[in-house]
């Protein structure tokens, strides 16, 4: 390691050059690939045949920050309600484009329900479950014809749980004839890439524009996902959708998704992401949107909401005051963002520190845009507040949380209310870490 490498600013590799794909609904356009930022998307788990329940969940996901929302279209009953779903969203002023998720019978549903085909902004096609032989080719061609007729982009989503059996069998046979055969897993990864690229090329041969195609090759294991997408990015310039096909539940799903996507994003691979978390029973579906945003923001690739740096706690901080304040401030900031993002441009870049004792509290608070250093066990019961690196006030008493929140609100209005749409100057950012 050289001195220059130590002193240089860390950054992800430049984004891999791709075609830009526009996903539209009315005048609202979400751009995937090209020079657009990495797009966050999610998927509903309601029955699409119930348009009202689905519309409410789509709105919830959109309010959390999902820029594209995918819905299941698996039955005639579901397809018949997609237009009503779109109408309900339009009445609620929710412009988020809808992506239709099709398996097995998409060619029939898109043809039989033209209102569904028109109301969707994009189609997800899985070439591995469209039949075999000529039937598969005809079904695929029928879906592409509908996409061309309605001027809709598609995602060709290959999945190792439903890979084209004929393609895989042929490639396994070819591998067996090699003098040094690959592992079965390596053949599987190669088949995923081949399926995605060849089907994209076939879609173009059938008349679909090259800038209307997004690709994905989803698997469930981190190392396989990294290997597949590295190879896929080497062989094509279509935008790529990243995500484990089933990340899992709770911390396991979050860790697995972060481990896989962070490696690829750091290498400039990936144009849109979805975190496929299994919700806890009765859990919040929008959790996957928050995790996707936090991956992108902690990597410095996008900014969605002010970041809160909080002390992890130790034997010096037996009180839970700093934990409660950090949680309340973080929830408050996220709740304000639907209004703040239009009223206060640049506020999403703000850093807030909520620290638990005198060891590193004042220093970390100075590094943040606004920070508070709460007293640790046995320390003087006072909490200095730092704004833009300067100590401005010391809070005491039982109303510290309310007073600090008011200080944050005033700071946001004063600093970002004057920006007139300009990006504010950034102070050095800090990330959460064990500070003791």
From TrEMBL:
Binds 1 [4Fe-4S] cluster. The keyword Zinc-finger does not apply. SUPFAM superfamilies: Nitrite and sulphite reductase 4Fe-4S domain-like. It comes from the Bacteria. Pathway: Isoprenoid biosynthesis; isopentenyl diphosphate biosynthesis via DXP pathway; isopentenyl diphosphate from 1-deoxy-D-xylulose 5-phosphate: step 5/6. Keywords: 4Fe-4S, Iron, Iron-sulfur, Isoprene biosynthesis, Metal-binding, Oxidoreductase. [4Fe-4S] cluster binds at residues 311, 314, 357, 364. Its EC number is 1.17.7.3. One of its GO terms (molecular function) is 4-hydroxy-3-methylbut-2-en-1-yl diphosphate synthase activity (ferredoxin). It is an enzyme of class 1 (oxidoreductase). Residues 30-292 form the IspG TIM-barrel domain. Belongs to the IspG family. Converts 2C-methyl-D-erythritol 2,4-cyclodiphosphate (ME-2,4cPP) into 1-hydroxy-2-methyl-2-(E)-butenyl 4-diphosphate. This is 4-hydroxy-3-methylbut-2-en-1-yl diphosphate synthase (flavodoxin).
């Amino acid at each position: 390691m050289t001195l220059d490498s130590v002193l240089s600013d860390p950054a992800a590799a430049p984004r891999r050059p791709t075609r830009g794909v526009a996903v539209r609904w009315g005048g609202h356009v979400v751009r995937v690939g090209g020079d657009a930022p990495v797009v966050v998307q999610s998927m509903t788990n309601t029955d699409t045949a119930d348009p009202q329940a689905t519309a409410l969940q789509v709105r919830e996901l959109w309010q959390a920050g999902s820029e594209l929302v995918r819905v299941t279209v698996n039955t005639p009953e579901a397809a018949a309600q997609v237009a009503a779903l779109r109408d309900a969203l339009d009445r609620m002023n929710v412009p988020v484009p809808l992506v239709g998720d099709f398996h097995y019978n998409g060619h029939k549903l898109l043809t039989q329900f033209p209102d569904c085909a028109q109301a969707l902004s994009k189609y997800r096609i899985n070439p591995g479950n469209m039949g075999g032989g000529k039937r598969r080719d005809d079904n695929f061609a029928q879906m592409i014809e509908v996409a061309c007729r309605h001027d809709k982009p598609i995602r060709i989503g290959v999945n190792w749980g439903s890979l084209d059996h004929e393609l895989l069998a042929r490639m396994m046979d070819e591998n067996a004839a090699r003098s040094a055969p690959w592992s079965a897993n390596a053949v599987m990864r190669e088949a995923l890439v081949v399926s995605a690229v060849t089907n994209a090329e076939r879609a173009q041969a059938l008349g679909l524009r090259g800038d209307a195609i997004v690709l994905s090759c989803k698997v469930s294991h981190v190392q396989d996902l990294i290997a597949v997408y590295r190879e896929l990015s080497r062989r094509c310039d279509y935008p790529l959708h990243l995500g484990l096909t089933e990340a899992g539940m709770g911390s396991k799903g979050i860790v697995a998704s972060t481990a896989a996507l962070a490696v690829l994003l750091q290498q400039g691979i990936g144009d849109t992401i979805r975190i496929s978390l299994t919700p806890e029973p009765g859990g919040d579906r929008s959790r996957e949107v928050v995790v996707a945003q936090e991956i992108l923001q902690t990597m410095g690739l996008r900014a969605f909401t002010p970041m809160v740096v909080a002390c992890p706690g130790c034997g010096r901080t037996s009180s839970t005051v700093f934990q409660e304040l950090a949680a309340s401030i973080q929830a408050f900031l996220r709740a304000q963002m639907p209004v703040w993002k239009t009223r206060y441009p640049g506020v999403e870049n703000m850093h807030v520190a909520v620290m638990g004792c005198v060891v590193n509290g004042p220093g970390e608070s100075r590094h943040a845009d606004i920070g508070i250093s709460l007293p640790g066990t046995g320390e003087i019961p006072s909490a200095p507040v730092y704004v833009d690196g300067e100590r401005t006030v010391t809070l005491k008493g039982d109303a510290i949380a309310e007073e600090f929140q008011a200080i944050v609100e005033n700071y946001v209005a004063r600093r970002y209310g004057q920006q007139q749409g300009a990006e504010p100057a950034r102070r050095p950012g800090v990330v959460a870490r064990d500070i003791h």
